[in-house]
Predict the structure of DENN domain-containing protein 5A.
Amino acid sequence: MTTGFSSNSCRFADYFVVCGLDTDSGLEPDELSALCQYIEATKFRDGARGHLASADEGENFEQSPLRRTFKSKVLAHYPENVEWNPFDQDAVGMLCMPKGLSFRTQVDTREPQFHSYIITREDGSRTYGFALTFFEEVTSKQICSAMQTLYHMHNAEQYDILHTPATSPLGPEDAPPRPCPPPRQIPRPQPVLHAAPAISRLQRFNSYDISRDTLFVSKCICLIAPMAFAQASRKVLQQLYRAVTAPQPPPLPLESYIYNVLYEVPLPPAGRSLKFSGVYGPVVCQRPSTAELPLFDFAMGEVFDLLGVENVIQLFTCALLEIQILLYSQHYHRLMAVAESITALMFPFQWQHVYVPILPASLLHFLDAPVPYLMGLHSNGQDDRTKLELPQEANLCFVDIDNHFIELPEDLPQFPNKLEFIQEISEVLVSFDIPPEGNLRSSDAQAKYPGGGSFRAADMFPDNRNANLASSPLHSYLLRENETIARLQALVKRTGLSLDKLDVREDASSNKDSSRVQCDQEELLMHQVNIQVREVFANRFTQMFADYEVFVIQPSQDKESWFTNRDQMQNFDKASFLSDQPEPYLPFLSRFLETQMFASFIDGKILCHDNEDKEHALRVFDARVDKIRMLNVRTPTLRTSMYQKCTNIEEAEKAIEMRVTKMDHTALHPHLLDMRIGQGRYQQGFFPRLQSDVLSAGPTSNKWAKRSAPAQWRRRDRQKQHAEHLYLDNDQREKYIQEARNLGTTIRQPKLSNLSPSVIAHTNWKFVEGLLKECRNKTKRMLVEKMGREAVELGHGEVSITGVEENTLIASLCDLLERIWSHGLQVKQGKSALWSHLLHYQESKEKNDATPGGLGPPGFIHDPERRKSDGSSAMPPLKISLIQDMRHIQNISEIKTDVGKARAWVRLSMEKKLLSRHLKQLLSDHELTKKLYKRYAFLRCDDEKEQFLYHLLSFNAVDYFCFTNVFTTIMIPYHVLVVSSKKLGGSMFTANPWVCVSGELAETGVLQVPRNTLEITFECQNLGKLTTVQMGHDNTGLYAKWLVESVVVRNEITGHTYKFPCGRWLGKGVDDGSLERILVGELVTASSENDERMCRTPPMQQSPGMMRRFVNISPNSKPKLNTGQIQEGVGEAINGIVKHFHKPEKERGSLTLLLCGEYGLVWALEQVFQHGFKSPRLFKNVFIWDFLEKSQVHFENAEQRGVSLDENWQTRVHNFCRFMHAINNTSRNIGKDGKFQMLVCLGARDHLLHHWIALLADCPITAQMYEDIALIKDHSLVNSLIRVLQTLQEFNITLEASLVKGVGI
């Protein structure tokens, strides 16, 4: 994507470069890349990975000299320098020949290879390079004899190895000592050559005879350009190469053509096409207008052909979520094509992180970078993925391009409407005869596309692997077997998409245009594939974000202060946006909205004042969004998951066809230059040494170099072109945009230079600083999100912005921890660096604790500040143990992978508020950390590590249920303790007690509790957060009366303790005669905090410290409330329920607590009915239920007497009596207060409470049983009570099963 190129450049190309062998300095091994390979090889030899490759591959280490790499140099570049794009010699040298020099003899294939590359500067602006590598005969005698000498040395070594007696493949122990190579010639393994017996290998490959063989060396010619006109540049270079190898010299000296491209060919303005002359034919390039998608000139069809649609979509999803991506191929141009295609398809978003589509061998340590990156790695012909040591795999997308294979990170969400999306793309591909499942014989694919590997499919090394793909260990994932594709093919058949018709369409268009089209037919075809596929992708985002502008939060302060506080500011109302989205989109969107690319996109939107100010991508996108809104009559905020296909493909295609049919401009033709006699000599097969005096400066009187553009391009076009990159000229805005881009990112681009240890150290230091900053921002973001209203009161953000998927934030924290733990690893083991470290720790601790003196389970901290819990002194607190928490995770059979285990362990530690403490304990084993990590690793930077642990400590301020809520199907042990009152005969109790525990996810069923201990431990499927405990006894024995203070239940994995207060009797003839009760409880928070843990935030709802009923049994002794207090109580209870339903579903607490807990609805209505209740005679308790039963009898009698009242009244009476009957007839022994609670809950559920209050207020029984001052006799108070209760009508109240068990209504 040509987003950030320098606007000052108006030339087609800035530089012409020649790279190759510098005969003056001779053969120098490519030290850095060789060193990397050497270290790898010795690592293999020392068995660091626990096993060694067979002796067959030991050859890898002692490469034959023809397979080694030597330093290439930039031999010449013209002009010397241009001010808007300073020449970067190191980067150009590395990327023109990323593998260094290669040698061949006359028996090897020597096809020229084209590849492109990109140089991204630290400010994010880009320059493109286009390189053609070919082989030239070595004429220097010194070089040939040096190669001969290397061969003599090499063959002597090989001879020793081959004649070592060995009966079996050499294992790590019995491998003979290898002669170490001389320090200057460090061999670097190239492709492993799997040829048969060793002797024949010596004869076949290790033969260079100076008298018999011709030696060839690679050379590269390259154009460096401000915009990516890949096809035009390829043609220019190929024609120059053809001129050198042709039997006849070219019409003009090569200098004329190069001078022409450098100085006389301008960039076409936006929306125009340009034709200029190569050596043998015209070259055409065209540039999209400012209203079209940005320029893209690589063959996208080839990418789909190599990977298949399904894989491209998965890779695209990974890129959008800023997951680390590593592309792997033995063809440089494929690495570049895939990387550029994926970033181009992201329109209107832009990749914000490290972007190195071709990673030179000397920069391999960048794979250690603990930041999101998109990098391409040359596979060196090694197809075996297992040999590739990658430091970070927990969150890595690995793409093996040549083998049609992709490895994805765990928990990757699906792209919205994925199936329909794949089908739409497939239809486009099928119409161009590209198989949607990809072409497994990918080496043939290049023949079809002009962007491919130029002249032949074979790269610099013959590619023999694709022919026998089945032997590859990776073929298991090949798309031929993929269900999605099978479903799609069925879909394509059903939609009646006929290939014949589509081919006809294509032929018709080619006949129609072939006479007029100025570029090759295949190039036009490439442009058509590109634009159609890109339009389909762009349409997905226009549909998905059609109303994004509504949710952009414009800053209230000026731009300066907005920038100062940028990382604390919210720029997009994520919660509201997500609440409008269809459910299936949420897993992807909630993660996408958290990315840097989305934040930068919105920042760009906030920064632009008007349309002129906008970046090109944003302007095009906004125009499309406006168009969609005009076409769609539906309200802009109501989203639909209806799939809407792309409609503007034809229009986009026409624009391109018009440009290539009618050329807007033709550049000057090449002409003879003012060269001295004898210059420009020509020798077939050799690229000449060019005359620098004529190429080093452009024409002095060039019209368009002085003026902005030739007259015929019109002033309007000039403004348009200027506007396309306007944002780069305005210094102030450029500074802002740059700052916005850098937020949250650490190091944007690796500097491609010859790296000294100090540069590497500086880079690593940048990474450490960046990780710490990211940790600080993440913890702050998560706390603000979690604390919600409290944070708003403290001024961190706005009320509406809470409720972004908590899981998304925790998953991104897990990714950050994995990146920190994989920074600077010595030797990688397993996919999760964090889990690997934990296992090492567990192993060392278990060894130490195996000594007989060790007390208790290993890894426990024996200290007085163990976790205390005020649940009850009777229940001993859980010990804090990192190892025990690991064992819990290891015992969960559902979690199969290391990455999954590490994430589960992090979630569990967060829920237990022990994450910081556990990690501190893990890192306190300094010996282990030293053994596992290099000196520069984040975990060995003491100050940063301390700050990091301190940031994590802040999570202790909030309650997370991120383990309980995610692992809903696992088995969890629970411990139940019944605390009975010792005072009143509790010890003489003879009946058999039971409990039944219910949570948000499930309930246990009845569990018998031993009478003597009153505690029980049991295992059952995760109950979720606990809500109620039903308890009772079977009323057997002499003394079946039991006074219970409370029930305490603890989750033995998370340590969460719930207390369910009771304070009532269970037994016949005592209290309300109840044999069972439903208790409502809440989480107990640790009361005595140790100094390491921060103070807790107040809980969301008030916890029932002591239940509404008191141990004093006589109702008379209850504190009396006046009518004002009672009304307030009812109002508060109703308010709590209303607030509950106004929260997002994921944030709601327990509704049971609001109904039956302390100061809940049941308590409030109890106060209403107890107010002014006439005092009963001595020693006789009268309950509200007694009053309700009498009223029921009265109503039934009235019905029987046929008292004629309105129908409305009769319905209400009928309902009231039906509910009373049902509750009275239940088989449960729940007592009178329990029955009242059940009636209130059912009345709330069915929205009948206000009707019943009205009935009872008018009932004659009320007059008998209540004093005159009673609230229920005051009509105005009763009316206001009815109005308040009516507010519950709009809510759909669902009751927990335990509250209404046994009532069949």
